[in-house]
Amino acid sequence: MKTIGVLGCGLMGAGIAQVSAASGFRTIVLEVNDAVLAKGLARIDKVLSGAVEKGKLSADDKARTLANLTGTTRYADLKDCDLVIEAIVEQVDAKRAAYQQVEAVVGPQCLIATNTSSLCVTELAAATTRPDRFGGLHFFNPVPMMKLVEVIRALTTTPETHEALMQFARALGKDAVSVPDRGGFIVNRLLIPYLLDAIRCHEGGLGTVEDIDTAMKLGCGHPMGPFTLVDFIGLDTTYFIANILFDEFKEARFAPPAVLKRMVLAGHLGKKSGRGFYTY
Ligand code: NAD
């Protein structure tokens, strides 16, 4: 693979485009309009400049990364891509429409991968004319720092496509794990019930938010406790993923507690809204 397309230059797309360009791939990132694109590219520039200031990256490496990176708002510019990674809004219809536009310009050998956290990868693959050359590349936020990529096998993904996506993730310097297309993949399947259980324990009087966080940090060596983590992920995102997991598995451990729903409806979304289990 030489040329990589990235759809979306938001939180995840910007990070994916940055690591792809930094790893030597010619990278083209596509956004909906010039203003959003400029904002996304400025975000990448800021992260790279910050790394140079801290002495973690040389000015030459920053320049090399930026030289590999171009932004566009035209799908036609993706025509030479060997792989297109989609990191746009978490809506099936929007993703389906984007794949159609990609497939109108790329060659038949081009792979498409989705960074979806919660949607069914097999359903997204089926929305394309190349369900065999489609898979999931699930990156973690912030992409340049987080080492893991879950590489998802849709029901239709061929072993060759899967292996190519595994190799691509490794070429970015990431640790790749191979996961079948099941709700939540590995990380969210195990993490979300843990977070929901922490909320239930707090409600049941087991401990304060602070004490539960301290206990899990110091007792388990976790970098942050469950309530700090829920606030960081976003209560709305946690609630959304929990509902999808509950819908898929129909197990009580995935059912979001009533208080989580109420907090989301009240706009207490965590760090991003200034208030969640903590106040920021
Ligand atoms: P975001 O809102 O920060 O960015 C999405 C970007 O996509 C926006 O800039 C938007 O303008 C752009 N966009 C929307 N429609 C588009 C289109 N048709 N073509 C091109 N660009 C389009 O969202 P995000 O947090 O970066 O999430 C993107 C994807 O990554 C979602 O599928 C999400 O589930 C997944 N994901 C998110 C996280 C996370 O921690 N936020 C982690 C892993 C995966």
Distance between the termini: 43 Å
Which CATH architecture of the largest domain is right?
A: 3-Layer(aba) Sandwich
Overall SS class: alpha/beta
CATH fold type of the largest domain:
Rossmann fold
CATH superfamily of the largest domain: NAD(P)-binding Rossmann-like Domain
Strand order of the largest sheet: 3-2-1-4-5-6-7-8
Task: Give helix and strand order, one letter per element, not per position.
Answer: EHEHHEEHEHEEHEHHHHH
List the uncertain runs.
Answer: none
Task: Report the strand count.
Answer: 8
Please outline the major beta sheet. 8 strands, mixed
Radius of gyration: 20 Å
How many discrete structural domains? Answer: 2
Beta-strand proportion: 5-15%
Descriptive account of the structure:
The protein has 280 residues and is an alpha/beta fold. The protein contains eleven helices and eight strands. Strand 1 (3-7), helix 1 (11-22) and strand 2 (26-30) form a beta-alpha-beta unit. The mean pLDDT is 97. Strands 3-2-1-4-5-6-7-8 form an eight-stranded mixed sheet, sandwiched between helices. It binds nicotinamide-adenine-dinucleotide. Nicotinamide-adenine-dinucleotide binds at residues 7-13, 30-32, 36, 87-90, 94, 98, 115-117, 138-139, 141.
